[in-house]
User: What shape does this take?
Amino acid sequence: MLGVAALVTVLAVMGGFEASLQQRILSLTPQVEIQSYNGAISDYPVIETRTNSVHGVAGSDPFIIGQGMASSAHGISGVIVRGVEPFNASVISKLSGYVQQGSLDALREDYNVSSSVSGQPLDGGMALGSTLAEKLKLKTGDLISLVVPIVAGKTAQLTTKTGHFTVAAIFESGIAFVDRNLVFIGLANAQKFFGREGRVDGIEVRLSALDQTDAVTAQLSTLLGKSYRVTNWKEFDQAAAAGFEMLKRVYALVLLMLIGVAAFNLVATLIMAVMEKRKDIAVLRAMGATVADVRRVFVLKGLIVGGTGTAAGLVLGALGCWLLAHYHFIHIEKKIYGISTLPVEAHPLSFAIVALASMMLCWIAALYPARQAARQMPVEAFRS
Assistant: This one.
């Protein structure tokens, strides 16, 4: 009972951690991404229209991406700059739920050199993560400077460009890398700032459901042809997903061994029963019971004991999952895990697999005592 309860509870918690981590990672990173092998994409409105026509696509968002150095009066930090369409429904649904301060509306404003704060010409509004804002000691409305490398001219000479932005919004996703390194600016302002007017680096695709990832990726690859590279979140986060899956398997194996230890306690219990019932077995054999009949009795006894413990364990485990999901009485460090309580996501399939594995172990444990009982000779039992 305790082994089964522990296993189903741990599997539910691990499933909750995986779903929570996946949801937070994919909230601010691409689910499917389209890029051109020829470099920047100039006809991106056409590509967007074709992409949105594919079944399973919930929306698309053209973007520009670059690296730079962000600075304020209190510090400096390397950042990844992502230019997005702030009026795009995909962007709003992706970012709005994580905004702690300010608003994404300021990213929509079209800035120019005449716009200024404290005498500094502005290049736009910027949304940045809470960790970065804390490091640079920034709040909404403050000024932040951005220095980026620019490749210009026919000789592809590398230069730098400095821009000044206002902090329009501060978000917190719970993913340390995102909150520390990623900043968002409006697509139009990003195109002007990076010198890529009328072009984007790629198109991010949002899915209606994650289980359609492979199908949508294949359809887009066929639709857009060999000039475009279509990748998805499984490729981006392959190492993390594989590591988490391995961790779940290790936990399940260790706890399954706990059930195995409990199941094989049945061996001692049933052997004691065989010793106590030697005369009864002899009487049954003398009355015509076969070896198979006696063996079957003790196998059924083991399965009844194991089945009762398994059923009680499933009920106890389900109750534990329900309590963890509704009352949140176990608290964890939010700065480390991005969440303050244990997430729980129980799947009926997990319960069924645990029950099946438990009963299999109980059946195996009952075989040896049942075999010993069947080998009892009636003459020897009566003689003793």
Summary: The longest strand covers residues 57-72.
